[in-house]
């Protein structure tokens, strides 16, 4: 990546149109719209003759699964991770990206801080299950009742505890889940940062 173009969320339609003109003036050879959202369509409108398909969002299969509880992903080539799907445009250009396993490497200090914090929250021998029930967009949120149902199933073993994580926006959701689950769950939503 040699340059990143940005537009503020509050820039409105005029900001998007201004950036669309700037992008069109650059003279790119290929344009990939990986998001296929209204905002991205506005941005690539002046370059539509250069546009190539982004990645397959598997929209039909996803809709059927969410709304009709029918899993038909196998008929559409199987469910693929977002990471795999985001590389599809490169593969169509004949490039073979090298997928390496995703790793989060924490310093020993951060690991010790996490251990200490968890020990303060429950018995030292508890097996922790982390749940992140939030989503940035309301259309991607799963109902709290379903998270509660999954958590109740996971917490059937006596030594298990649930740690609900998330940002400040998920604080109320975390509290709601903990209220139903009682002493076997604790929420740190809004009280920790990503590394914690």
Topology order in helix (H) and strand (E) letters: HEHEHHHHEHEHE
In total, the number of strands is 5
Tertiary shape: elongated
Oligomer state equals single chain
Portion of residues in beta strands equals 5-15%
Largest sheet, strands/sense/barrel: 3 strands, parallel
Number of helices: 8
Compute the average pLDDT: 83
**Pairing-aware structural class of the strands and helices?**
mainly alpha
End-to-end Cα distance, whole Å, is 30 Å
Approximate helicity band: 25-40%
Q: Output the radius of gyration.
A: 22 Å
Low-confidence stretches: none
Query: What topology, given as strand order, has the largest sheet?
Result: 3-4-5
Could you characterize the architecture of this molecule?
- The chain is mostly helical and 196 residues long.
- Helices cover 40% and strands 10% of the residues.
- It is built from eight helices and five strands.
- Strands 3-4-5 form a three-stranded parallel sheet. The chain has a two-stranded parallel sheet with strand order 1-2.
Task: Based on the model shown, name its key terms.
196 residues; mainly alpha; three-stranded parallel sheet; 10% strand; elongated
List the helices and strands and how they pair.
Elements: H1 12-26, E1 31-33, H2 38-44, E2 51-53, H3 59-68, H4 82-86, H5 88-92, H6 108-121, E3 127-131, H7 144-154, E4 160-164, H8 171-181, E5 185-187
Parallel strand pairs: 1-2, 3-4, 4-5
Helix pairs in contact: 1-2, 7-8
């Amino acid at each position: 990546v040699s340059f990143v173009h940005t537009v503020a969320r509050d820039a409105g339609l005029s900001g998007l149109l201004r950036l669309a003109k700037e992008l069109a003036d650059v003279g790119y050879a290929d344009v990939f719209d990986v998001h296929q959202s209204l905002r991205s369509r506005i941005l690539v409108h002046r370059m539509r003759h250069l546009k190539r398909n982004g990645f397959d969002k598997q929209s039909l299969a996803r809709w059927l699964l969410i709304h009709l509880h029918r899993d038909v992903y196998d008929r559409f080539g199987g469910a693929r991770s977002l990471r795999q799907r985001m590389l599809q445009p490169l593969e169509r250009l004949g490039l073979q990206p090298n997928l390496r396993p995703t790793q989060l490497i924490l310093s020993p200090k951060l690991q010790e801080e996490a251990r200490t914090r968890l020990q303060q929250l429950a018995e030292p021998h508890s097996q922790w299950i982390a749940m992140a029930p939030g989503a940035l967009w309301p259309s991607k949120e799963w109902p709290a009742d379903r998270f509660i149902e999954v958590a109740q199933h996971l917490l059937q073993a006596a030594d298990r505890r649930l740690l609900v994580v998330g940002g400040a926006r998920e604080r109320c959701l975390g509290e709601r889940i903990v209220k139903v689950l009682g002493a076997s769950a604790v929420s740190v939503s809004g009280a920790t940062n990503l590394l914690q």
